[in-house]
Design goal:
The structure holds 3 protein chains of 3 kinds. By secondary structure, chain A is an all-alpha fold. Chain A folds into 3 domains: 158 residues, no CATH class; 84 residues, no CATH class; 225 residues, no CATH class. Helix content of chain A is 70%, strand content 1%. Classes of the chains: A mainly alpha, B mainly alpha, C alpha/beta.
């Protein structure tokens, strides 16, 4: 309690808007922003990403990242106070103060990068920091000589931050428009490959010339200048109209009478389904392949979601089930494995699920009564043990050792279907459909589980294990259920992985997979089914689409995990319950305040039994 | 009225016969026996085959002791943080790596200029201090940025954060210094062996063992005799009461991270000298193994961490050769890792309190 | 007819004798109160009966069956339910969800039922909801249907205590253990609680054991009272006998002085204010 009050007091200070505190915050923001910019340069992101153009002929990604960092610095430096429940409204900062704060923070940030530039030029930093190449220095110096470049850094950064801080002065509608426009342009540029492909594909399908030839919008990987302006204006206008007049969609929905509303929702649903079905054909081979991978990770995510999200068990060795599913499929279906008369994919499927589930129970039974952190490490250990086993010489006759198993056949659905294809599902597009079907199934199963007696038992387990047991819930059995189900669903991911790639290698069965699946659940929101889907699209799809990303994937995953836990532990699309669980202390404090008025900040010791009993 | 509130089914049937069967205990006993038998058989096979001479075994054991000493240093960092915050600082392995890897960039010029060979004691001392500095800074930043905001959160949250921080740090250093493995320079004075009580020990290993031992003793003294140590134990017992006693909880926590980081930094240079190489990934497995060691010895117990480290080091060094020569497994390093993990799993299943802890794990 | 029997039950934590060779018999349809100063071992006694702690020695018999050392969920299934000293609700679940969880041990739907939802599972779910509403309805107008979907965390303190009891009732027990149910309640709420406990026995046929400090509740509700001190049972009988017992008074107030009468009154007065 004492610790909580101290933290709250610090937070209140942060939101003071006197010139002194604004200046302090500006300096802090500048140091952090500058530090971030320097970090991004040193770790190699800026020079590496700079190889990609954002706006054709005008702006590259590396520079854009630096610009965004500075903009964020200025924006945050001038941020007006946030209001906590129960706090009186603080006075709004004067315009001049906010702008000065922005300017100062930008100058400081620019100063730090300037120092990096000068240092990099003066001493051979490259011997230690491999990323400080001539190219990086060139970027930082705006192509000029270093001293001029350094000066430009400071001025440019200050100016950008000034502009960013000025955004606060705009009316909320304009601010929303500006930000939305910016984000849209950025997204459109980063995802150029996929958007370009979809537009072209749709254009061919629907035979609209302007869609088919996207030269007006994209020039290679980057946006054209025209395209940039167009997108910025259109997105901004839409955001503006939404901010001033309320969401068009919402208003339209409210206009529809109650009875018809379900029909409207069904129609929307049908449209989305139709889009998903047509997607592989308009998106092309490469993207269908990516979608297939995303689908596999959605399956894995949904499986781990049952273990971590529903039952609250932190499993860091989930790759074990993925590996068992993949290897079992390989061993059963590939003619190059030791089994004679290999099974077909579909015949092997139930066997694989049973084997994996059994392994799940085997692994889970001895360890599920351990405490959270220990369980995490032990499962991590199991994951590694499985990896060592499949790569070992000892099991080579069965698992193929370091070479893995090849020639895994594709699933065969026996007949040729319209749109989908077949009988043999050997193209990415065809596989996409089967993966999509299983994802839908997994989503269905997840929802059903969540809303059942078992689901309630899991929530009770998360809330208070001892009390749950007092309610007659068998802790071990309930946890094992979650583990076994997680294993079963995970095995599907492994199966499709094996079939899709056609071979399995021990190097695919690494800890990274467990962490990635965990990261995508965390990002989307633990326990949230739509969250898993979003998480998979972002964390799995992005690196595939943005090739530059690949080297820094792990760095980003790590940063995402930390950032989400600190800023928004319930994830991007949490269930209402989850958000409550994770902000319990804040909610309780607010309730306490509401009942007792403002506290003095001294630690409050409540007499046991008279008020909130924890 | 909710009629029939009391269910009519007979109580006896509800309880069921299986209720009494200690299924868990039976399975655990069977498993234990299987493991013990497996170990005995495997060892017998290897010793009978005589693939290794007594000298080989002696070297394995000494290497095990050296590595174990370093595990002990890292493990103490884990156990200190755990004793105070009750969280596993998953990123501690990266704290270790940060110091070791960065010290390479000081070691290299020292070696190239010849200073390393002419004044080895001063050079190594400087390297260790530098490594400690970097590790401590990393640890403090970690605490400040990633852990402090999450003090009250449910246990899952700081754990995930720690994992993320570990990934982040690994790849940050990869981005900074590149993915290449760097050979760590060794001063002339530390090449070759010394004869200690008739045993020829690699000089680097000897340094590691002695260095670690000194630090362990120093830490023990710190924890038990000084005011700082007492404050740390108090905060570990009950954070709020400690605060009411006038202890600055935040400062104590930072101190804990500083000490843990310092130990890891020292271990980093010693490790680099023994292994003769550094790279960005060098902290991951030692981190997990050190954690295993801490658990083995009894988490929260500093002496236990040291003891656990030694035991794990020797086990890991000897077991692959002892057991698996019979099974014909070629790649020793992988089995080493598997041994460590197996030890961890076994300890946590059979005796979660560790060697120096209680047999009953807390029901919290 | 004896429903619950503790024979020589002891629980030692290292050197601390939390429960020290306690014998206790609770008969069907009785309401027994267990009193004693803080730290006397009353909650530990509950923990031993309900399986949260294994006794160091002794035996617990319920409805003729030996339940010593069973797991808590098995004890619940056998027919014993409990509430906790500090109210432990599932804060992020709604009122009705809390009670529905109580029905867990009386229902069977598993994974298959959850996913496929055959008619058996669906009717079971309906029954669970119906039962839960019945339990809540027992509290009269404390939990009208419009409150059922409210979050448990948002309830008033007294309501939370009642919800905990409702949840325990949902496990369809024969024996109900209430751990300091009146703690923190004002006099009016305490009266309501006393009436409620009596109704539990009279209308539902439950046997109840209550750990309490508030002598108003103890006096108003108990058929028998047992007093503990330092883990030992020091007195047993009806309320008058126990409250007048020398050892009991000493346990609460300390060593004896001259004014016996004044001390008896003081006991009654002291424990009344204590149980505020």
């Amino acid at each position: 309690m004492a610790v909580a009050t101290a933290t709250r007091r610090a937070r209140i200070e942060e939101f003071d808007t006197t010139p002194e505190s604004m200046m302090r915050r500006a300096i802090k923001a500048g140091l952090i922003g500058g530090g971030a910019a320097v970090y991004l340069c040193l770790v190699g992101i800026v020079p590496r990403f700079d190889e990609r153009e954002v706006i054709s002929g005008l702006l590259n990604l590396g520079r854009t990242i630096l610009i965004l960092t500075v903009l964020a610095t200025g924006y945050l430096a001038a941020r007006p106070a946030k209001v906590l429940p129960g706090q009186p409204e603080p006075p709004a900062p004067k315009a001049g103060v906010g702008l000065t704060a922005g300017l100062v923070s930008g100058a400081i940030a620019g100063f730090l990068t300037a120092v990096l530039l000068l240092l990099g030029d003066a001493i051979p930093m490259r011997n230690v920091f491999v990323a400080v190449t001539d190219r990086l220095l060139d970027i930082l110096a705006f192509g000029q000589n270093v001293w001029l470049g350094a000066l430009l850094q400071i001025l440019f950064a200050a100016g950008l931050a000034l502009v960013a801080s000025g955004v606060h002065l705009l009316r909320p509608a304009l601010r929303s428009a500006f930000l939305t426009g910016l984000v849209t342009v950025l997204m459109a540029s980063l995802f150029s490959t996929i958007i370009d492909q979809i537009l072209t594909g749709t254009g061919e399908y629907v035979r609209l010339q302007f869609l088919d030839d996207t030269g007006w919008l994209y020039d290679g990987d980057a946006l054209t200048v025209f395209g940039t302006i167009l997108l910025f204006v259109v997105a901004g206008a839409l955001a503006y109209s939404r901010a001033t007049r309320g969401s068009l969609i919402k208003r339209r929905m409210e206009a529809v009478p109650e009875a018809q509303r379900t029909t409207v929702k069904l129609i929307a649903f049908a449209l989305i389904a139709a889009f998903l079905l047509v997607l592989p054909h308009i998106a092309g081979r490469f993207i269908s392949d990516v979608l297939g991978t995303i689908g596999i990770y959605i399956l894995l995510g949904l499986g781990l979601n049952i273990v971590v999200g529903f039952a609250g068990l932190l499993d860091l060795g989930y790759v074990a089930f993925f590996a068992i599913g993949a290897y079992a499929t390989a061993m059963l279906t590939s003619p190059s494995a030791f089994t004679e008369g290999p099974l077909t994919f579909w015949a092997a499927l139930p066997v694989v699920v049973v084997i994996t589930t059994f392994c799940g129970i085997l692994i889970g039974a001895p360890v599920l009564r351990l405490r959270g952190d220990y369980l995490a490490i032990v499962t991590l250990g199991f994951g590694e043990i499985v990896r060592v086993l499949v790569i070992s010489e000892w099991l080579r006759p069965w698992t193929g050792g370091a070479q893995g198993i090849l020639s895994i056949p594709d699933p065969n659905i026996g007949i040729s279907l319209p749109l989908i294809g077949g009988p043999e599902l050997d193209t990415p597009q065809e596989l996409y459909y089967v993966i999509l079907a299983f994802c839908v199934l997994a989503v269905f199963v997840s929802y059903r589980l969540q809303d059942s007696r078992l689901g309630r038992a899991w929530v009770a387990l998360r809330e208070d294990e001892q009390v749950a047991e007092a309610m007659g819930i068998s802790i071990i059995k309930t946890k094992l259920m979650a583990f076994a189900l997680g294993a079963a669903v995970g095995s599907f991911g492994g199966m499709f992985f094996a079939a899709k790639i056609g071979s399995v290698f021990p190097n695919s069965m690494v800890l990274l997979v467990s962490i990635l699946v965990l990261a995508l659940i965390v990002l989307g929101g633990m326990g949230s089914i739509p969250g898993v889907i979003v998480g998979a699209i972002v964390l799995v799809g992005l690196p595939e689409i943005l090739r530059e990303f690949v080297e820094y994937r792990l760095l980003v995953y790590g940063a995402v995990l930390v950032a989400i836990m600190i800023l928004r532990p319930e994830g991007l699309f949490p269930s209402a319950r989850r958000r409550r669980e994770l902000h319990e202390e804040e909610i309780e404090e607010a309730q306490f305040e509401a009942r007792h008025g403002e506290t003095t900040g001294a630690p409050v010791v409540t007499a046991g039994g008279s008020e909130d009993v924890r | 009225m909710p009629g029939g509130l009391v269910a009519t089914e007979a109580t006896g049937r509800r309880i069921g016969i299986a209720a009494r069967l200690p299924i868990r205990k039976i399975i655990l006993w069977v498993l234990s026996i299987l493991i013990i038998v497996g170990v005995i058989l495997g060892s017998r096979a290897t010793l009978q085959e005589g693939a290794y001479s007594a000298a080989n075994w002696r070297d394995f054991v000494i290497l095990g002791v050296a590595q174990g000493s370093l595990y002990a240093l890292i493990a103490m960092g884990y156990t200190l943080v755990y004793g105070i915050l009750f969280m596993i600082n998953f990123a501690h392995g990266e704290v270790f790596m940060a110091g070791a890897f960065t010290s390479f960039f000081l070691a290299r010029p020292l070696a190239e200029s010849g200073f390393l060979n002419s004044n080895p004691v001063i050079a190594i001392g400087v390297l260790i201090l530098f490594s400690i500095l970097i590790s401590v800074v990393t640890a403090v930043l970690l605490e400040r940025i990633a852990y402090r905001p999450l003090r009250g959160a449910p246990r899952l949250v700081p754990l995930i954060t720690a994992i993320g921080a570990s990934l982040f740090l690994q790849n940050t250093f990869r981005g900074f210094f590149g993915a290449r493995v760097r050979g760590y320079p060794i001063p002339e004075a530390l090449r070759g062996r010394w004869d200690i009580f008739g045993l020829p020990i690699l000089r680097t290993q000897f340094l590691a063992i002695v260095g670690a031992a000194l630090l362990v003793v120093a830490l023990y003294y710190l924890i038990t005799r000084t005011r700082t140590g007492r404050s740390m134990r108090a905060v570990g017992e009950d954070k709020e009461i400690a605060a009411l006693m006038g202890i600055n909880v935040d400062r104590v926590i930072v101190t804990t991270f500083v000490i843990g980081g310092g130990l890891a930094g020292a271990a980093g240079v010693l490790w680099a000298l023994v292994a003769q190489q550094v790279n960005f990934f060098m902290g991951f497995f030692p981190g997990i193994k050190a954690f295993t060691a801490a658990v083995l010895g009894g988490i929260g117990n500093v002496v236990g961490a040291a003891v656990g480290g030694l035991i794990l080091g020797v086990l890991e060094s000897v077991a692959p050769f002892l057991l698996l020569e019979g099974a014909g497994v070629p790649s020793v390093n992988q089995i080493k890792d598997a041994v460590a993990f197996t030890v961890l799993v076994l300890v946590l299943i059979f005796r979660p309190g560790g060697i120096l802890g209680s047999a009953e794990e807390e029901k919290a | 007819m004896s429903l619950l029997q503790l024979s020589g039950v002891s629980k030692y934590f290292g050197g601390v004798k939390a429960v020290d060779v306690v014998d206790l018999v609770v008969n069907q349809g009785e309401i027994v109160s267990v009193i004693g100063p803080n730290g006397a071992g009353k909650t530990t006694l509950f923990n031993v009966v309900t399986g949260f702690n294994d006794p160091t020695s002794g035996k617990v018999t319920f409805d003729g069956f030996d339940i010593t050392g069973l797991q808590p969920n098995q004890v619940t299934r056998a027919g014993i339910a409990r509430t906790f000293q500090a109210v432990r609700l599932f804060k992020n679940m709604s009122v009705i969800e809390n009670v529905m969880v109580g029905q867990h041990s009386r229902t069977r739907a598993g994974v298959f039922g959850a996913i496929v939802r055959p008619p058996g599972t669906r009717s079971e779910e309906k029954k669970i909801t119906k039962r839960a509403r019945e339990m809540l309805a027992f509290f009269g107008d404390q939990f009208p249907p419009r409150f059922h979907d409210e979050l448990a965390a948002g309830l008033s303190y007294a309501d939370r205590r009642r919800l905990e009891i409702a949840r325990a009732m949902a496990t369809e027990p024969k024996l109900l253990l209430l751990d300091e149910p009146a703690a923190g309640m004002n006099p009016r709420e305490t009266e309501g609680l006393t009436a409620l406990i009596a109704r539990l026995r009279d209308e539902l046929g439950l046997t109840v054991v209550v750990v309490e400090h508030d002598m108003r509740v103890v006096k108003g509700v108990s058929d028998r009272v047992a007093a503990l001190d330092y883990g030992k049972k020091i007195a047993e009988g009806n309320y008058e006998e126990v409250s007048g017992n020398e050892q009991v008074i000493e346990a609460y107030l300390g060593k004896k002085h001259e004014d016996t009468r004044g001390r008896e009154q003081a006991v009654a007065g002291q424990t009344e204010t204590e149980g505020r």
